[in-house]
């Protein structure tokens, strides 16, 4: 993935403040040519710099009020198969490979405790899963963010 330069960072910050801003509005705000903004946005999208839009939808709005983190220990050489099976469970919102005792960190959402039980049983039934440990998220203190990193990247060019 290519690195974001200071101009890209300024563009992404402006887009974060007003996600529905037109290319023309962004170009005027940033003092860039409309074609430059259009090309940069297209490149950022094509190169995977921008996360999918569904990342902005909160699961709570869909009735999934519980979030849990499940660490999963996997039989060696089954990591790809287990990851693929996890991706088929709609309530699995993210899977991250780890170093250490656990192999995967799986973020899941559930409607209630019974639903969470069902989901964890589904995870345990995946061939290659040896063990799981589930921790219920009680409160989020800092939401997922990259704004401060973008501000730093945008500011470094001005110094």
TrEMBL record:
<protein>
    <submittedName>
        <fullName>Lrp/AsnC family transcriptional regulator</fullName>
    </submittedName>
</protein>
<feature type="domain" description="HTH asnC-type">
    <location>
        <begin position="4"/>
        <end position="65"/>
    </location>
</feature>
<dbReference type="Pfam" id="PF13404">
    <property type="entry name" value="HTH_AsnC-type"/>
</dbReference>
<keyword id="KW-0804">Transcription</keyword>
<dbReference type="InterPro" id="IPR036388">
    <property type="entry name" value="WH-like_DNA-bd_sf"/>
</dbReference>
<dbReference type="InterPro" id="IPR000485">
    <property type="entry name" value="AsnC-type_HTH_dom"/>
</dbReference>
<keyword id="KW-0805">Transcription regulation</keyword>
<keyword id="KW-0238">DNA-binding</keyword>
<dbReference type="InterPro" id="IPR011008">
    <property type="entry name" value="Dimeric_a/b-barrel"/>
</dbReference>
<dbReference type="InterPro" id="IPR019888">
    <property type="entry name" value="Tscrpt_reg_AsnC-like"/>
</dbReference>
<dbReference type="Pfam" id="PF01037">
    <property type="entry name" value="AsnC_trans_reg"/>
</dbReference>
<dbReference type="InterPro" id="IPR036390">
    <property type="entry name" value="WH_DNA-bd_sf"/>
</dbReference>
<dbReference type="InterPro" id="IPR019887">
    <property type="entry name" value="Tscrpt_reg_AsnC/Lrp_C"/>
</dbReference>
């Amino acid at each position: 993935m290519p690195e974001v330069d200071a101009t890209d960072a300024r563009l992404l910050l402006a887009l974060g403040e007003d996600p529905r801003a037109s290319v023309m509005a962004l170009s005027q705000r940033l003092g860039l040519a409309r074609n430059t903004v259009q090309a940069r946005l297209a490149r950022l999208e094509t190169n995977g710099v921008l996360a999918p839009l569904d990342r902005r939808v909160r699961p709570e709005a869909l009735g999934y009020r519980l979030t849990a983190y499940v660490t999963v220990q996997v039989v060696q050489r089954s990591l790809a198969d287990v990851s693929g099976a996890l991706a088929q469970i709609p309530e699995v919102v993210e899977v991250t490979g780890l170093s250490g005792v656990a192999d995967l960190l799986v973020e899941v959402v559930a409607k209630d405790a019974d639903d969470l039980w069902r989901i964890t049983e589904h995870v345990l039934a995946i061939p290659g899963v040896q063990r799981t440990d589930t921790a219920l998220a009680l409160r989020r203190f800092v939401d997922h963010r990259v704004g401060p990193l973008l501000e730093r990247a945008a500011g470094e060019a001005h110094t």
